[in-house]
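Sanity check

After download, print the first record. It should look like this:
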Amino acid sequence: MPAYGFPRRPRVWEKLREALERRLLDQPLPVRLAVQRYVSLGLRKVAFEQAGAPLSTTALRLYMALDMTLGATLRRRLGLDRAHVLMTAAAPAHPELIGWFHAIGLPLLQMYGQTEGCGPAAANRPGHLRIGTVGTALPGMSIKTADDGEILLKGGNVCLGYLNDPVATAELIDDDGWMHTGDIGAFDTDGSLRVSGRKKDIIITAAGENIAPEGIEADLTNQPPISEAVVVGEGRRYLVALLALDAEWLAAWRREYDRPGDLEALAGEPDLRTAVQAAIDHVNAKRSRAEAIRKFRVLAHGLTTENGGLTPTMKVRRSAVCERTRT
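Expected structure tokens:
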């Protein structure tokens, strides 16, 4: 079945932002403060636009002045000063990441689609962006949700089925020609599609709470220490996170705390766990008690295709990771 790609994240865009932010640390304090002011104003501008309200004239003028100077320099440093439209797809981009790029004058637009639909089915457009959504249906495509929230697609680009596999084909495409994506989503008041995760991955806790783990995992992997996250909790009283740490962050942490050794030896280090817990606390603060991560485990090895943690298309093998850790 097709997949949206949770919880893999758009690492190229994240690395671009991280590299720029690291570079700014070497700049004089007045430059750093000016950039912080510019980005802060840009984020306010984005928030107002999303709410359908204009930024104040004074703030807008200041932002435009900074955008023509600092913004132009930042875009040039990223090598994107000639870009007009930037797209991200195949994995969910965190709303904070998209907002940051928009704040510095780079319109990063998210798309949605599957291989069985020959690629894109929905997208945000320049001038019509809803951060946190994948936009509206592309020309020639129809999108709706079933009673259980599953996203259904129809259009000339939908495949005819799986070769020599009528059973799987019948599961994919119903009698009315709608392709069942296996993803769960809903439309907002603007008609843009929000994808919340995979239907088969919904967690039912011991308290009977239905929780989509992919959004929590996306929030976790938006934190600097965490590269990959798998949330488990089926039949449990609380959620547990299995975490792979970001290699670059871990290298910097090792230098700061002068801790040699591999991750397997460091996984139980109190200082390391404190840093990871702080990232989890940040995520928990924005979520309900039922969605809060109560325990976590740092995986001794990152997730790769070689160790069975990732598929060839770089999606996490949830069941394989859970079976291997038996948390």
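If your output differs, re-run the checksum step. Summary of this record's structure: The chain is about 35% helix and 20% strand.
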